[in-house]
């Protein structure tokens, strides 16, 4: 093997037992001025320098960050990849298919493994099929009372009415959680078998079975290390994940962010992420924290501050004397919010507080000497250690008062003290983010209704959904404990929550339940109606159970602005439930408080929260737990047990998972009847020598305008009954109720290809109105996009797409390039591309071609119906101009948007998957 270009930097620890790359041996004074997050990028580039994906020039560029920031493109190979089940499936299916493909060429299939260690966490398939009363309606399979019966059949469960009368007796939260788990396992059997096979067949793959916890929480509490050690080298931990909460990890000084399924797959296949060397905004924390604010308030305060600072696409790194006041849970909560202000990460370099947190869990002596040796450790109180940031913004922690946000957007914050007035003004205001425009004479309306035999009234501002979710703040036990203590004090004071309010408690992991129970507050949550509904990501992905019918009717009758209050980190109008127009994000204790008040139109200072049974007024301040009280309980019950419990769950697994059958084979035994897992055809024509790439006489499959987003391109959500995917599934004898969602079927390329461009919002210029249709040009027929593409493919006609500006913006979706590829699309010609999507296209061997500046399909007078030919030169270079010739005799130039020679090589191999497979041949 060739000498590593940076072998001269290798140093050792622990009497030579552990090696590391020591940047101090570069003798470069710039290192000490680099933000610590950039030092992490530098270390990874040094260690992974292979001359192909990562070059010495990249290392030099990172070191030269002061000048190169926002200019140089640099690679980053994270220490590990984190996948959740939905996004994990396609990547794993591709690797399984690659094993088949190389085996066909006589290569040992066991050589196909993720190059980067991958944790796959099975949690997002949890659906709240059962909530506290629905379960009473479910057929009881075992005939008994307890959870001991055998799992109900899919048929029985799917026939269970989801809308349930509300007066039924609640069942224990344990049973509810258990039923959810059974449901999940039945529904997902094929996928679980596949995952289990992956965990056995692949090296570098760790599968966390269902119901252990949500991705981000496991990432935080179980999978994270300050450092990683492999092949005798110690290096800082870093991660990319497909969960939007991945950024939480930066609160632990572990660099990491969320990526799309395609990007994570690329990293698994050995390709680093490419990023523009980021600018790093230093966020200086000063002042001291007001004891009444929860960390959520601090988070929202800092979020707003950072939003206003306009730091989209940058790194944020915290420093200043205020940082050491923040506990690790506070930091991770803040770090979790960075998607709200579009920063790539919010990084809290490792300090004494971080190390102390880890001490509870693992050996840290070596880690700490390593981090100190390379100055990835810092003391926030010592300003002489402060790096030079691109810019500095200061935040005074004393300025925080409690807030909620809403009614429609997370950025619209309302101080709790002015909530009543603010809601009133929302009723008055014209319809908008802060307005519902309710006529004056209708604002006082009260609608009576019956619930469980009792009469209640709803009015504007009535709370009908109250969800204590620890999706965001699971990492912050103090907040959940504050809520629990508040619940306890409320119950002790004789207060209750009205029974028609849809209350739920989604603790994020069993551990949260555990510490709520251990601290004695769980029964009080339950007494107020907040019962555990499951451990996956629940309400925050929109899976709330429906409201009681009488409540829905009352809301409709009075055209009421009913409210949801939840402690998630995102919310969108109508997302919780169609008829709930105002949704507020609030800290868990405030969710409890508003649930008890039954309305958001309350001034906690001046009005009581409720009355005791003997009519005594109780104010919020009477029952709000003090910071000291909370911290004491946190110390006593939480930290010691958290890690132990999770480790126990991980090691024990669960009986369902243990009983999932799977093969021990090196190749996956595809089940040809499966409609969830199918071997994709990416490798169907894999040959040792890449095929030529010129495009002859292509038709335009679609003629699109500006701003075609990944939502238009890649299938998501439910599968429409009238769609190409539905036809396919029906041909497999599935009924519409068995279709499940595109997300759940992304391990089936046949479904996903049919779902590509199947959005009802697709604006195709070939067709007058929005819809998933296109013109099959040779026949003049209007067809589903898939059917047209299928006909072209059968006739051997290559395809291109014509598009306007910003093609492919929006969230990354794993099928956004695979889908078009399998439809036969060879190139997309657009006025401009979202950069990420451009890379995704290249990764699948599709050419992103850009019209020359000032030109577009209209200026070139293209009808879209002509045929297009693009001849590629022998040697292609990044950014080269190519000529497109049409069958009408026109010709025009376009730019081939390849960033680098590596990009060109990947493209020439027909994308990354085939490139990797071919290197094995
Ligand atoms: C932070 O704000 C508080 C109160 O508003 C003020 O007393 C204090 O001086 C401020 N601290 C700094 C460092 O600006
Ligand atoms: C964040 O990004 C989204 C989408 O790119 C954009 O619409 C929004 O304005 C950005 N917000 C901020 C605060 O930069
Ligand atoms: C709560 O703790 C009690 C006593 O330790 C135990 O019996 C019970 O099973 C626990 N409940 C939950 C939901 O963990």
Give a summary of the structure in a few sentences.
With about 900 residues, this protein is α/β, with parallel strands linked by helices.
CATH superfamily of the largest domain: Aconitase, domain 4
**Quick one: overall form?**
globular
The computed structural class is alpha/beta
Mean pLDDT over the residues: 84
Q: In total, how many domains does the architecture comprise?
A: 5
Rounded radius of gyration (Å): 28 Å
Unreliable parts = 125-175, 536-542
CATH class of the largest domain: Alpha Beta
Largest sheet descriptor: 7 strands, mixed, barrel
The main sheet orders its strands as: 26-29-30-31-34-33-32
Distance between the termini: 20 Å
Strand content: 15-25%
What fraction, in percent, of the residue positions are helical?
A: 25-40%
Helical stretch count?
A: 31
General description of the model:
The structure is a single chain. With 921 residues, the chain is α/β, with parallel strands linked by helices. It has five domains: 7-76, no CATH class; 127-187, no CATH class; 279-401, 3-Layer(aba) Sandwich (Aconitase, Domain 2); 403-625, Aconitase, domain 3 (2-Layer Sandwich), CATH 3.30.499.10; 695-920, Alpha-Beta Barrel (Aconitase, domain 4). Helices cover 32% and strands 17% of the residues. The protein has a seven-stranded mixed β-barrel with strand order 26-29-30-31-34-33-32. Strands 6-5-4-9-10 form a five-stranded parallel β-sheet, with helices on both faces. A hairpin with a 5-residue loop joins strand 24 and strand 25. The two termini are 20 Å apart. Residues 125-175 and 536-542 have low confidence and may be disordered. The structure holds 2-acetamido-2-deoxy-beta-D-glucopyranose (3 copies).
